[in-house]
């Protein structure tokens, strides 16, 4: 009885807040960019504090001000947990008037924040999440998916390797959604390019540290290429143990998602010969070298690591976000996003276009890890096998079929 | 396992400090405060606290009153969240049926795990519950319907009973508050019923309870199932509040967290777990900028709590009230 | 068939880690009556210390095999003396909670300092390479792990069951007061036993370093599996925990061959079956 009474009373009171319109004044004298990343977990080296640094560098290089207003960078650790990411995003949007959230790095956190951003009409600049659906069936009007996605990775490594002669594959896959979808995309690509998939071994993840049984199966299959549809610690362990069991160099390993920081952790002796696709490498040309040296020697870069594609992509996306805001003359999210999609990008990170679905299509690179003899110094890890032009590297707008894109 | 907080509240009853009249007043004040809070504090934060407070209170039924330490309660929180999320998002059920589905699954899981776990006692019981919770965690990582690492996202808030919209945070808050009151009330009545007294007897001295003719195993199982069910209710509601269900809710860290909430708040006290939940959520919220230090600090709080603060906040407060009655 | 043997051998090697860790846990529980949740974190500490010794001090694998467990053992003894001892008169579940808190502290500190990418630890030169056994290529290091684990496990078993020191330990398990009345320094024995138990975990960590990545989270899911092993084997028995650890490694290997998705949950499924049929555990005596 008491419950019913209080409930009815509550309903009556509800009419009051409902009358207040959702106040969405985006800015109030300052443009705030929030870097929501994994500061302490699996991705802390490839994103984390480095991501915050990249964004701060972008803001500083832009001049620290846009449209006459100062730019502020805030950051938080989502610990790769979707709930923390969502709560932080909400708090940032509601209470701290953050205008855009950048990085996010993992698909689960991105998936949790994008709907919140759509609801509040704020922009998300993704650098790191891989799910292709973010610019496909799950696309939102306020999202820019920079750097890379699963399709680009699978296509880069899969198709190119088959063309290079690696026409029989065996997958070692992390047995959860990310791994399985990566395996699926790569399988499609390999078959379309004329290759064969001889089988796959699914390993539990996370928490599994022993890949010997799965590698033994890969070895028994005789496949020329062992595709690793996993990431982070799983990939590192797989590579290590493949060497231990004498699987490499007879069979070649292809990492479907590998970052330079992981190659660094493995060491060239173990990682040599590994194929991988990335969007960026510090040693590609003078422009990338110049920027990367600045990043590496920045006083805030405690570990003095070279930038990963996630961090470089962030710098580029934030710079272009600010440029778009300047050109649009307002910080209204709709106007800024429209400007971003209308302006082609051309900087050290790459050249390309942000499509109507939010996907930034640019060139990708298939790399192979050098042998210790080939490497001339620290971080000299990759040689370019192929530069994949944007049109081939990413799925077309039609293929993505984002519902927001008018036919 | 002895519950120091419980001894304090019993002493206060005997001393006449806690009377039925004062209790009624206390709960009325709490009820009113709960209704007014969303004006002062961010509603999403409050809803999170309420769900976890319900979770901790359910856990306390098992630990504080029956003396069974379950180290796998996250399995119930997480599974219910996933089931409710799926029911609402994919099957299109309204929230009340979705929550019912989640709670039912958690109760069933509680019965399955409980029947196996009570075959051992003490430490073994704890380890068995941990083991099964880990098993459920791994299953949830793999099963497609949970979305694995991505979790179940975008769970819609359909109108309650098909009529009352719950999209606004305020409407949702009062709904969650009602659910909390209902769950809490159920636990409260259970604790203060003859059934609850037998549970306490089992906690104090199981062989003696057995010798008095009570089917101890049946009581323990019932307590476990009830605890699992209400924990499931908390998880199911949380899924609708945050509009997603993730692996975090089923991870063993969560099981440890609920132990901490109960320990910190006061084992064997009625309000203790809720206080503990408030403390832990607030602490984690404000420390979220410090990354890994949160884990370390939670660990330190745990260690200090076990060594020097076993009564918990409410237990200590009751202890003080006993020694300084006014 | 060949593939099966390969998987079983690999499973046995994994089982030797389970055996080492559950041995340490069983020894600690037997005498000190504490369920050491921090066992996984201390295993990780052992691995990290070996890595740190190599990285910062240039101390290689062989000295690390001795020094790292010693350091971990020392740490364990300090913890037992200062913290755990205060809880002995209480329910042993408090000990579990304390060690749980310690796990969070240890893992959090390492996470903070070293992130989560993991660090590489090289296989010592003497143990590199391997042998082609026909059905598989067995890395020499893995064979070494299997050999040493078996040696250490059965060595510990021998000491506990067949020597005088072991007799004191077993007496202390059954009736510490009486043993103390006979003039044996039981508290000291408990401290040393705890130290030895965690030193075993640290030792397992050093051995694991070249095979797995040395990362702050390497111990956490492992410790829960080890708990299940100990429930299945029955904590009263040292031999039980060794045999169960090895056996479960084999079963896991078999599962990975027959039906990989179940390999992370098979241990718990077996735990369920054992609880139904033999609640005291396969080798256990209900305490």
Please give a structural write-up.
The complex is a heterotrimer of chains A (407), B (326) and C (287). Chain A has helices spanning 2-19, 48-62, 82-95, 107-120, 150-163, 177-192, 212-221, 232-244, 260-266, 268-271, 286-297, 309-328, 333-342, 390-393, 397-400; strands at residues 31-37, 65-66, 69-77, 100-104, 123-127, 143-145, 168-174, 196-203, 225-229, 252-255, 275-278, 345-347, 350-354, 360-362, 364-369, 382-388. Chain A is α/β, with parallel strands linked by helices and 407 residues long. In chain A, helix 3 packs parallel to helix 4 and helix 5 (150-163) runs parallel beside helix 6. With 326 residues, chain B is mainly alpha-helical. In chain B, 72% of the residues lie in helices and 0% in strands. Chain B has 14 helices and no strands. In chain B, helix 3 packs across helix 11. Chain B starts with a helix and ends with a helix. Chain C is mainly alpha-helical and 287 residues long. Chain C is built from 11 helices and 2 strands. In chain C, strand 1 and strand 2 form a beta hairpin. In chain C, helix 1 (2-32) packs antiparallel against helix 10 (238-258). Chain C starts with a helix and ends in a 10-residue tail after the last helix. Chains B and C meet through helix 6, helix 11 and helix 13 of B and helix 4, helix 9 and helix 11 of C.
Can you give keywords for this protein?
heterotrimer; B: 326 residues; mainly alpha; globular; C: 287 residues; 71% helix; 2% strand
Average pLDDT for all residues of chain A: 85
Poorly predicted regions of chain A are 1-26
Percentage of residues in strands of chain A:
15-25%
By DSSP (H or I, 4+ residues per run), the number of helices of chain A equals 15
What percent of residues of chain B adopt helix (DSSP H or I)? Answer: over 70%
Biggest pleated sheet of chain B: none
Spatial gap, N to C terminus of chain B: 31 Å
> What is the CA-atom radius of gyration of chain B, in angstroms?
19 Å
The order of strands across the largest sheet of chain A is 8-7-9-10-11-15-16
Number of E-type strands of chain A: 16
Q: What is the distance, rounded to the nearest whole angstrom, between the alpha carbons of the first and last residues of chain A?
A: 56 Å
The main sheet of chain A comes to: 7 strands, mixed
User: How much helix, percentage-wise, in residues of chain A?
Assistant: 40-55%
Task: Please write the string of helix (H) and strand (E) elements of chain B.
Answer: HHHHHHHHHHHHHH
**Fraction in beta strands of chain B:** under 5%
Envelope shape of chain B: globular
Low-confidence stretches of chain B: none
- Structural class of the secondary elements of chain A? alpha/beta
Overall morphology of chain A: globular
